[in-house]
């Protein structure tokens, strides 16, 4: 039995493109892009000045927010300076409670840190030192010639 002919005809891509004809352009050409209308120097300066002035609505909004902030500051200032004794005591108690909670959290963190930094007893030797080389079942001291198996 003979082999099949697997050869494929070669098609020159340039010749095939020429045979298809010119390509239909979609969108503006480079010439259209280069000949587009551009602002004059004076128009450009006017646009930049408008941008520098900024938005009037934004300025109004900022003024409004500044007024609100001033009112809030005045209210807080009045509360702190002329507040009643009960308010001051209540604030003191709440700050004391917060401080105690922070202390408790710090102590808990310290305890957890100590626990995690401790070495497990399984990994320690009879004299309390750590093994020089550790494998799953055996500990070998390279400095000393002892071999300990657990």
Question: Could you describe the 3D structure shown?
Answer:
The chain has 150 residues and is mainly α. It has a domain of 40 residues. The chain has five helices and three strands. A hairpin with a 3-residue loop joins strand 1 and strand 2. It is flat, with a radius of gyration of 42 Å. The model has no long low-confidence stretch (mean pLDDT 78).
Key attributes of the depicted protein:
150 residues; mainly alpha; 3-stranded antiparallel sheet; 5 helices
List the helices and strands and how they pair.
Layout lengths: L12 H8 L9 H5 L6 H13 L2 H27 L2 H33 L15 E2 L3 E3 L6 E3 L1
Antiparallel strand pairs: 1-2, 2-3
In the sheet with the most strands, the strands line up as 1-2-3
Q: What is the number of E strands?
A: 3
* Spatial shape: flat
Q: Describe the sheet with the most strands.
A: 3 strands, antiparallel
In short:
The protein has 5 helices and 3 strands. The protein has about 150 residues and is mainly α.
């Amino acid at each position: 039995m003979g082999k099949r002919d697997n050869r494929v005809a070669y098609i020159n891509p340039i010749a095939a493109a020429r045979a298809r004809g010119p390509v239909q352009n979609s969108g503006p050409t480079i010439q259209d892009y280069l000949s587009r209308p551009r602002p004059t120097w004076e128009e450009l300066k006017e646009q930049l000045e408008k941008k520098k002035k900024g938005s009037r609505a934004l300025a109004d909004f900022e003024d409004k927010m500044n007024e609100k902030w001033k009112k809030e500051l005045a209210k807080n200032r009045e509360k702190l300076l002329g507040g009643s004794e009960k308010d001051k005591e209540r604030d003191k108690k709440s700050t004391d409670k917060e401080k105690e909670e922070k202390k408790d959290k710090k102590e808990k963190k310290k305890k957890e840190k100590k626990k995690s930094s401790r070495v497990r007893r399984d990994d320690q030797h009879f004299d309390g030192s750590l093994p020089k080389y550790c494998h799953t079942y055996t500990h070998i001291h390279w400095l000393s010639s002892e071999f300990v198996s657990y």
